[in-house]
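Lines hold sequence, tokenised fold; shown next:
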Amino acid sequence: MASERLDRIIAPPAPRPTDDPLVPEAGDLLAAVAQYARTFLQTARPMRPRAPEQLKDLLGGSIPTAGHDQEATLRNLIAAGEAGLMPSGGSHSFGYVVGGALPIGTASDWLVSLWDQCAAVYDTSPLASVAEEVCESWLTDLFGLPASTVMGLSSGCTTANLVCLAAARQHQLAAAGWDANDQGMAQAPPLTVLLGQHTHVSVLRCLRLLGLGGHIGVVDAGDDGRMDVRHLAELAGRAPGGLIVCAQVGSTDCGSIDPLTEVGTITHSHGGWLHLDAAFGMWAAASPALQPLLNGLERADSWATDGHKWLNTPYDCGIALCAHPDTFRAAVGFSADYLNSTPRAGRDPMDYRVEISQRARALTLWATLHHLGRDGIADMVERNCEAARTFAQLLAREPGIDLLAPVMLNQALLHIGDEATTRRIIDTLNHNGSCWVTPTTWHERPAVRISVSNWQSGPHSAEDTANAFLRAYRDHRSP
């Protein structure tokens, strides 16, 4: 059946009118992919890979000697995709924090690949450079950040955190008379990094890469997952050297938002730099109803978020923002004679990120922002948050299921039994394809985390999934 479908998608070559370049020939690869895309998007799929055990046979073996024709390669790739892809872009996908590509995101991303721009310097793509500047202006306004804020695009929130924390390190060491770029870190003045108990592992990874792994203090959190500001003040008061504080806007497990105004006041009263890991929660700023939860967001010095989570751009799209342009460029910018072949007519995107060469991510980000606008983003965010609340209400009323933290945004965190019971229920749900959910641990208790971050998800998909969840729970709960 799959082979017959592929035969229909990739038809034999046929004569093509030469007077209209927009008419695809029957066997054209781009036309084939477009036809497959229509079929893919119109086909209901269970929330699980169909046959991942076939992938090694479909993709593996020795590297080809003579190679294959393009149609055979495309046929093989589609067959592998049908066997092993995770349909994480569906409305019943609630594992980790994975968005789903909006149609405008997919279409514009195809253009990015078609145009194949190298978004390194202005010369290599004026289009990408200007689009990135426009997105910077739009996001600064959307999030209510200082007018001086600059933006860099990266592969994800990990590298966005990395460049922001590099700027924080640069700034705090410079205040002590030390240039990390020229003098390194071996004999640098002391720095202290304070972060919350539930800080995402990517922040810890970045701190290690920056040579700050041994300078970390952990701030206690309450039962709601939010940073304890009294403990923060205590640790900041006795921190040696320069201070960097990392707070969260939407923690991974329960979506909690640290008390940003108080955290900002404490950090800056000690001359510190406040960085916010806001991988998904920052988009709540677009909603008038939810924005008060983010009061104090503008007081930070840097922010890291993702487009491919709650904004629902295609993967990948990380966004680094910094209120101190000179410091940001000093930390990650660079130059070389071979990169300065002509006078610049615009800014160089590479001065605001880790990578030099990069696909023109700004075009897909621009298209998504242009399509949704402030109201569209707010509607999507509010609908997802309503779905998370619906989940919590429907599941927590079941005897034996406990809501472990308040639903602040789009995350519902639930205790459904011991570790073995939790695993059985999750495996059942994920195996039968009714939805995709993932486990975690909260205060040493096994838990299941439901993250609603897809543009198609709302209360309707929450109700469907809650019913499937309750059936699995009643079948597998411990006596």
Q: What stands out?
A: The two ends are 44 Å apart (CA to CA). Residues 99 and 453 are 5 Å apart (CA to CA). The mean pLDDT is 88.
